[in-house]
Amino acid sequence: MISHSLPMQPDTCGYWFIVNHQQLYWPPEQQSLALMSMGELVALFGEPEQSGSLGELNGQAAYYWVLNDQRDDEDNWLSPRQLLAQGDGVFELAARAVQVALFLQTHRYCGQCGSAMHLVSWELAALCHRCGHRCYPRIAPCVLVAVVKDDQLLLARSSRYKAGFFSILAGFVESAETLEQAAVREVKEEVGVDIDQLEYVGSQPWPFPHSLMTGFIARYVGGAIRCQPNEIEEAHWFELDALPEVPPVQTLSGQMIARVQQRILGNKKAT
Ligand SMILES: [Zn+2]
């Protein structure tokens, strides 16, 4: 459980994830985070807008430190996406830090009555003392679907991707929908194809800005590819030993593509 209310002293020491407008302080020469005291941070950045506990990193306490001010050293700040390859849970804590910062920034006032919100001391939540409305950090579940037909994988290029870059299908879960229903609906909407035999693979927090990716491998049942306008630029069946550029293995979609590839190509070799 994340607690944001901790008795912080100038000598409180740990790993600090410093967030400014959804970016993390990570100077170009920095290889990994260094242990620092709160006093050192105040000397470097001034008082934070918010700070609190994030969890643990390498057996040491990890904290967030939210600035949200104007800074002129933009080379020293990067998106958590650029920390994907950092091991030891650094990406996960970075993802949590930017999501907590966004929650705090967007829940200053009550969405129901407009009064100022107050942070609850025993959990990460914002509470309106006037009407009792309580909010928790927003998490948007999203399904990733790897559709397999014999030795082929269905990959699509979204209008947001550069030319030549493809990935498996993805979409947000709607209200009152199961993950499986969302997977079937998204695949049908985006490429006009029917699927079944959904197999859950795993999940990955994705802080852009607050998604939780969940992955399924599914079997193609029928239908010809028909791309959803304004959403999918192109989609094709690719042979698994001749894939185009796809997401890296640090991402859940990259891991799923690699898993399908190993399974199908491994089976092929065995027969
Ligand atoms: Zn209220």
TrEMBL record:
<protein>
    <recommendedName>
        <fullName>NAD(+) diphosphatase</fullName>
        <ecNumber>3.6.1.22</ecNumber>
    </recommendedName>
</protein>
<keyword id="KW-0520">NAD</keyword>
<keyword id="KW-0460">Magnesium</keyword>
<keyword id="KW-0378">Hydrolase</keyword>
<dbReference type="InterPro" id="IPR050241">
    <property type="entry name" value="NAD-cap_RNA_hydrolase_NudC"/>
</dbReference>
<dbReference type="InterPro" id="IPR015797">
    <property type="entry name" value="NUDIX_hydrolase-like_dom_sf"/>
</dbReference>
<keyword id="KW-0479">Metal-binding</keyword>
<dbReference type="InterPro" id="IPR000086">
    <property type="entry name" value="NUDIX_hydrolase_dom"/>
</dbReference>
<dbReference type="InterPro" id="IPR049734">
    <property type="entry name" value="NudC-like_C"/>
</dbReference>
<dbReference type="Pfam" id="PF00293">
    <property type="entry name" value="NUDIX"/>
</dbReference>
<dbReference type="InterPro" id="IPR015376">
    <property type="entry name" value="Znr_NADH_PPase"/>
</dbReference>
<dbReference type="Pfam" id="PF09297">
    <property type="entry name" value="Zn_ribbon_NUD"/>
</dbReference>
<comment type="similarity">
    <text>Belongs to the Nudix hydrolase family. NudC subfamily.</text>
</comment>
<feature type="domain" description="Nudix hydrolase">
    <location>
        <begin position="137"/>
        <end position="262"/>
    </location>
</feature>
<dbReference type="InterPro" id="IPR020084">
    <property type="entry name" value="NUDIX_hydrolase_CS"/>
</dbReference>
<dbReference type="GO" id="GO:0016787">
    <property type="term" value="F:hydrolase activity"/>
</dbReference>
